[in-house]
Write a structure and sequence with these properties.
It contains seven helices and no strands. The chain is mainly α. α6 crosses α7.
Length: 158
């Protein structure tokens, strides 16, 4: 049983790897550059070493540094001057056309866990589990499908 669960999880994540660039981008028509998945199997260009993903992972309260000077902020993440601790929540948890853009320091719970990447990966996970998606979640599902497969998924009957 454990082997079957592990194989299923591995299959789900391997299918997500090649599509993550579509899921992570806010606007499907503008892919993230440089590419997230380059097919090499190397991960050295990911995380805080990737200019866009670094902004996703940046503690939301430090996100202002990216709007001032993205390269300098990325270097601060890499050298530990911007500390990434368990209590420093990453920007991708909040919504905004750039992750965390809609974050309100006076009310950190407003919009928390509503970041578009979380929504899209949850939809992917639900689809990979072959579960029924609640009807109130359908708009998120269609937006995710449009990003990955293009076209107007809203006209598609699943």
């Amino acid at each position: 049983m454990d082997a079957a669960i592990s194989a299923t999880r591995s299959d789900d994540t391997s299918r997500l790897k090649s599509q993550i660039g579509h899921y992570a981008t806010f606007d499907c028509r503008s892919p993230i550059m440089p590419a997230i998945y380059d097919g090499t199997g190397s991960r050295t260009h990911l995380g805080i070493n990737h200019p866009i993903l670094a902004q996703f992972l940046c503690p939301v309260r430090e996100l202002k540094a990216f709007s001032e000077d993205a390269d300098k902020a990325q270097k601060k993440l890499q050298n530990g001057k911007i500390r990434m601790t368990a209590s420093a929540l990453p920007a991708f948890l909040w919504p905004g056309d750039l992750p965390g853009k809609d974050y309100d320091d006076n009310n950190m719970f407003e919009g928390m866990f509503e970041g578009h990447l979380l929504e899209r990966v949850c939809v992917f996970s639900a689809l990979s589990l072959d579960t029924d998606v609640p009807s109130d979640y359908a708009p998120h599902l269609y937006k995710s499908l449009e990003c990955v497969w293009g076209g107007n998924a809203g006209d598609t009957h699943l």
